């Protein structure tokens, strides 16, 4: 099934996308919190232990958080379209 442009979707399809958007937002927030926890635990461990892995592995959670936050372009477009069609 190929993806349609959001402006080509019907009102019913937009409502379905809205439900999926809500689920994705909750999942993204959970993942960001989990990754932030990993980052801070790693920072604390590297401060208190001299033989800890260091700061380099902590860049991976930061990169993943950055990707999750910047992946919201489609979400913003969907919210704008929902507002235009008064489907909120």
What does this structure look like?
Helix 1 (11-48) runs antiparallel to helix 2 (59-70) and helix 1 runs antiparallel to helix 3 (73-84). The chain has helices spanning 11-48, 59-70, 73-84. The mean pLDDT is 82. It has a domain at 35-83. Helices cover 70% and strands 0% of the residues. By secondary structure, the chain is an all-alpha fold. Keywords: Membrane, Transmembrane, Transmembrane helix. This is FUSC family protein. The chain crosses the membrane at residues 26-45, 51-69.
Q: What is the strand and helix layout of this fold?
A:
Layout: H1 11-48, H2 59-70, H3 73-84
Helix pairs in contact: 1-2, 1-3
- Which of globular, elongated, flat, extended, rod-shaped describes the shape? rod-shaped
SS elements, strand count = 0
Average pLDDT value? 82
Helix percent band: over 70%
Secondary-structure content class? mainly alpha
Strand fraction equals under 5%
Keywords: Membrane, Transmembrane, Transmembrane helix
Organism: Labilibaculum antarcticum
Protein name: FUSC family protein
């Amino acid at each position: 099934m190929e993806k349609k442009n959001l402006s080509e979707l019907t009102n019913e399809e937009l409502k379905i996308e809205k439900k999926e958007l809500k689920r994705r937002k909750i999942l993204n927030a959970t993942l960001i919190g989990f990754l932030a926890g990993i980052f801070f635990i790693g920072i604390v461990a590297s401060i208190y232990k001299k033989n800890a892995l260091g700061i380099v592995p902590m860049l991976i959670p930061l990169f993943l958080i950055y990707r999750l936050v910047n992946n919201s372009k489609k979400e913003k477009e969907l919210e704008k379209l929902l507002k235009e069609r008064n489907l909120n």
